[in-house]
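Appendix B, example 12.
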Amino acid sequence: MRDAFVSELTALAERDPSIMLVTGDLGFGVLTDFAKRFPAQYLNAGVAEQNMAGLAAGLALEGRRVFTYSIANFPTLRCLEQIRNDICYHGLPVTVVSVGGGFAYGPLGFSHHATEDVAVMGALPGMRVMAPSDPAEARACTRFSGSAEGPSYLRLGRNGERKLHSDDCVRIREGNMLHVAGPESADTVLIGSCGALDLALEAVGLLEASGVSAAVWSSPFIMPFDRARVMQFASNSSLVVTVEEHSESGGLGSRCAQVIAASASRRAQHLAFGIPPVPQHYVGDQHFMRVQVGLTARRIHAMVTALSGVRGAHE
């Protein structure tokens, strides 16, 4: 996803001289070509994320479309007050780019686990939150950010995420979900986001082997959210499952739960898979960390089939 973002941003900068990339003293191997080609559109703010957010706001007030870039929690939590007061208060076209969402930087420990970022950024006034699940979605979200009004948050993975869409050029509309696999509607619907769509697709393979047909959708937008689509699922399906590499609080699962609870015609149960909202004291790669918190396709399969009454669910 990271490489897809840089590639798309480079294409945007070629066409639009107002595009500005500001990094927090990292990404040199990935951003080197951009910096060489567009020296007037690139700044290194140093390890000073609060300054980086304030700088981005000032550039935006002067007509630039700014992308700030850093690892996981650093461009979000470390400078949250500046994002809220300098960027959101003025409704500025600044996209905060976080690389390594979830457990992508798992071996570096809790300081680098971006597990609350979607909830925190989604609570800011006027903030658009995007959490693409594969490189094609990352490209589409970057293109969207290049012309969107107001502030945005773009959450990216960085562990060589595989292509999950058959089309390299995914087209998105603000707030809309994307159909990925299976029928468009089914009695069981899985919605993936925050880089965990791969787990949803793996779980569907296991479910199909157990005789459970499921629809798979991606939600690259967390704010604004596709309420109409979820209301449809709540009314027409028996089970809606959300899968995200983010805290169980305040992310995709919470958004879906709010919509389903407000649906007068709901018949669907909601099953949410995410990260428990407690500090993770384990250290390991992304797969290891997912296993520690129970964020696995096998666990999704076991719980869905148990609710569906499928024989052999726990075998």
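The first strand starts at residue 19 and ends at 23. The chain has two domains: 2-156, 178-308.
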